[in-house]
Amino acid sequence: MNILLTGGTGYIGSHAAIALKEAGHNIVIQDNFSNSSPLVLNRLALILGEEVPFIEGDIRNTNLVKAILQEFSVDAVMHFAGLKSVGESVLEPLKYYENNVLGSLSLLRAMKESNVKKIVFSSSATVYGIPRYLPINEAHPLKPVNPYGRTKLQVEQILEDEAECDALLKVVNLRYFNPVGAHKSGLIGEEPRGMPNNLMPFIARVAGGKLKELHIYGDDYDTFDGTGVRDYIHVMDLAEGHVAALNYLPHSSGFETFNLGTGDGCSVLQMIEVYRKASGREIPFRIVGRRQGDISSCYAAPNKANQILLWSAKLSLFEMCMSSWSFQEQLVN
Ligand code: NAD
Ligand code: WQD
Questions:
Q1: How far, in Å, is the centroid of ligand 2 from the Cα of 233?
Q2: To pair with 91 at 20 to 30 A between CA atoms, which of 144, 186, 233, 276?
Q3: What is the pTM (predicted TM-score) of this model?
Q4: Separation of alpha carbons 57 and 59, rounded Å
């Protein structure tokens, strides 16, 4: 199939690009580089042995998206483009609604006018809000607790409404848990601008000597070692989940949601220990107060994706840390 990846030079989109090419699909990427670099395109070309067709631009430019859909005879869209910082979304909610919600509306309008009827959406476990039970399945109530999460839920609802009225539209809505790690080449990975907010990129910078120590946000949670527990999933497993979603799209009844996670919880202290072993570096840390808005534990019930998409996460925590470290090392050198 011919696939458009919006936000395809970003962290998850660039890894999905590799999995899609390896599965035999043709891809084209559109990105406005608001949170990525053109260098990713060189890296993808090195990994894939060929240039990836790329158009620079914003998905809010509906005419541009239409032109891409038509020029590349796009069969399906993978919609990664979006802003994703929880903290920034609290400070600048309008920016998040404008980019994530208006961006998705523009994309859907372009798809409608170009008769493109298949889309995979990058949603997030953040739409569940504070877990009422664990593991979280797709039927868990939806109550996001920050503007970022609400933009994701709003786009889900728009997609669901659109699929309801257009019997030909097929939507697979993927709720990612905590994607981490990098492609095995070490050439692409997660490199946040400025100070990292998320655990794994922070640990990577401490291991690489770029930051002095990790602050652990609380060791008094109701977990086995007191630190927060999450469902970390290797970004290449996540990428394979997109290939599985694409294979499933024609069979989708309209709008269908799947959790993409491992089903296993890992604590902050466990992650530090595995990263230490994988990198051979010490990870100095200090326990500080809880981070506002944090939850104790969150992990997926991935059974629906396992059974219906015929996909499951295969790569271990050690492989997540090893690949993150390979990427970090080539940044250091
Ligand atoms: P990322 O920031 O690395 O990638 C997003 C890409 O989209 C960037 O390259 C950015 O430049 C581009 N982009 C943003 N707005 C755009 C616009 N209006 N027009 C064109 N391009 C635009 O983020 P990521 O981690 O790769 O996340 C991809 C998607 O997955 C996002 O929608 C995010 O909300 C979702 N998600 C991410 C995580 C995570 O922890 N990384 C978890 C759950 C869901
Ligand atoms: C994981 C654990 C922290 C940093 C966020 C978003 C969510 C989703 C994924 C997109 C927690 C602890 C972290 C640090 C720490 N993104 N931690 N020191 O909070 O599960 O989810 O990213 O959809 O929307 O909210 O991930 O990596 O920030 O935190 O102790 O410097 O690590 O308290 O227990 P989180 P995270």
A1: 13
A2: 233
A3: 0.98
A4: 7
